[in-house]
Specification:
133 residues; three-stranded antiparallel β-sheet; alpha+beta; 46% helix
Length: 133
């Protein structure tokens, strides 16, 4: 019988690399799923590389199941060092593939991680726009 979670999901759930909060983060994205009760908060610190804004650091706080925590952690790894535009191209399928699959009933966790990232980037752009006024 195939295990419910891949080794990568279990590893990231039991020992997430990106768990925590960034004090004075440049942007924060908060999302939740009322059906399952998962809540994710992504903190991003923006840096510059070659004249482009990149995700210098990213951390998360997630209240949820093993899949919710693992997908949050993996999403952070997938976008670290990338530009904001590149980060927005990371979809839930890339998160699932990087984790070595998820059970169908847990796919929504990867969607939530993707939505948290999107919310953080959109918040950053909105903040920048309001500062220009």
């Amino acid at each position: 019988m195939k295990p419910y979670y891949s080794r990568e999901v279990i590893k990231r759930f039991t020992n997430p690399k990106n768990f925590g909060e960034i004090k004075n983060a440049d942007t924060v994205g908060k999302v939740g799923n009322p059906r399952c009760g998962d809540i994710m908060k992504l903190y991003i610190k923006i840096g510059r590389k070659g004249g482009k804004e990149i995700i210098e650091d990213i951390k998360f706080h997630t209240l949820g199941c093993a899949a919710a925590i693992a997908t949050s952690d993996m999403a952070c790894d997938l976008v670290k060092g990338k530009t904001l535009r590149e980060a927005l191209k990371i979809d839930y399928k890339k998160i699932i593939k990087a984790l070595g699959d998820l059970p169908p009933i847990k796919i929504h966790c990867s969607v939530l991680a993707r939505e948290g990232l999107k919310a953080a980037v959109e918040n950053y752009y909105a903040k920048k726009k309001s500062q220009k006024k």
